[in-house]
Amino acid sequence: MEPSVQVRELKKDRVNFVLENVDLSFANSLRRVMMAEIPTVAIDIVEVEMNTTVLPDEFIVHRLGMIPLNSMNCDEALRYNRDCTCSVSCRYCAIQLVLRISCNDSETLHVTSDHLEVVAQTSYEDEGDVGDELSKRSEEFGQPVGKGDPDHPPVLICKIRKGQELRVKCTAKKGIAKEHAKWSACSAVAFEYDPHNKLRHTSHWFEVDERAEWPLSENAKEEEAPKENDAFDYSAIPERFYFEVETVGSVSPQEVVLKGLRELQAKLANLILAVQSTSDMPTIEGADVQAQLGVQPPGPGWGAPAATSPNNPYASPTGGQTGTWGGGSDQWGGRGSGTSPSSNTGWNSTSPSWDSGGGGSGSGGGGGGGGAWGGASSWHI
Questions:
Q1: Residue ranges in the chain assigned as alpha helix (H)
Q2: CA distance 269 to 285
Q3: Membrane-spanning regions, if any (predicted)?
Q4: Alpha-carbon distance values, 18 to 51, 91, 184, 244 (Å)
């Protein structure tokens, strides 16, 4: 039978549907794609011009990065920064936002996402090739989700009192949640199958009464309950899956599902093409395979022990292996890039690294350059 989808409930920020006539691997692949592969827009770089609040710069920068921005039609309305021909960023691959606010009253002022303003799309001095991305953006594109909507409370950034001020410039870019959670279009994606546990994939731990301690879900109403003496079918496989998708508001739930299916289709198509191209290669064995695929035999280092001697029967590593921490040379802690935790975006994808500023000197933690103690600082989230 052909796969089918039945939408049971559709709201502004969530969708509930039933996916049938597919196997468990496909359902889980769709869940993972919707969680990590849907492109959205999020604040990626923040330049702090003035911050006299009680919160340090990195706290505020992290909060700004996690604010969901309107990303409808993000596939066609914005380029990936890595694919753009501009030198740093331009209107075709980035959205500029500013926040400038100060408190002059005795009352506490709440600084929220509603205070973020999108900079007008003017031409840049150094921008990429001209495209039609701008014409595909809505008026709300890049704006904080729910801005000006009384039914949607804004995201609180910080609280300031009289005499305090906050001024920042933000650059929002396109990305996916696989790179950083700030680009996630969904807050939760889950599915359930076999609500009556007919397949016995779940072992219920209970003390007295299994049915009383493990109540059935609402999805159990969709299927017929098994009888007491029904025979257990070891070869049965699930074919009906109950999905619940909740978004953060940057992308509509129906767009998340449709884009997830398209992305999964594209991945499978690429896999099929790769398998077909490999199957057309002549059959070769042994070292010829390594030579054709460009595989180098392992040398001394982490991947292979060093030679032993009569005085030293124990082999010890003498080199770094490409692809390991600090690998890529013939000495310990060699010159290779490998997969060490430092990168040009900070120690990891969740910690900010500052890379510019004036007055003083310093170095970003694995980041892209020296920073400054005092003065404006630029944070790469």
A1: 24-36, 57-65, 74-77, 210-213, 253-279, 287-293
A2: 28
A3: none
A4: 49, 40, 23, 9
* Contact between residue 164 and residue 52 where contact means Cβ atoms under 8 Å apart: yes
Inter-CA distances, 274 with 267, 268, 270, Å:
11, 10, 6
Question: Which among 295, 380, 319 is positioned nearest to 345, based on CA atoms?
Answer: 380
Higher pLDDT, 230 or 323: 230
Beta strands in the chain (DSSP E): 4-10, 14-20, 40-51, 94-102, 109-112, 117-118, 156-160, 165-175, 186-192, 240-247, 353-357, 377-380
With beta carbons less than 8 A apart as the criterion, state whether 141 and 111 touch.
no
Whole-angstrom Cα distance, residue 73 to residue 66? 20
The answer to whether residue 14 scores a pLDDT higher than 90 is yes
Reduce the DSSP state of residue 275 to 3 states and report it.
helix
pLDDT in tens, 101-143: 999 999 999 999 999 999 987 655 566 677 788 888 888 999 9
Q: Find the helix packing angle between 24-36 and 253-279, rounded to 10°.
A: 120
**Residue 352 banded pLDDT, cuts 50, 70, 90:** very low
Compute the distance between CA of residue 39 and CA of residue 77 in angstroms, rounded to an integer.
11
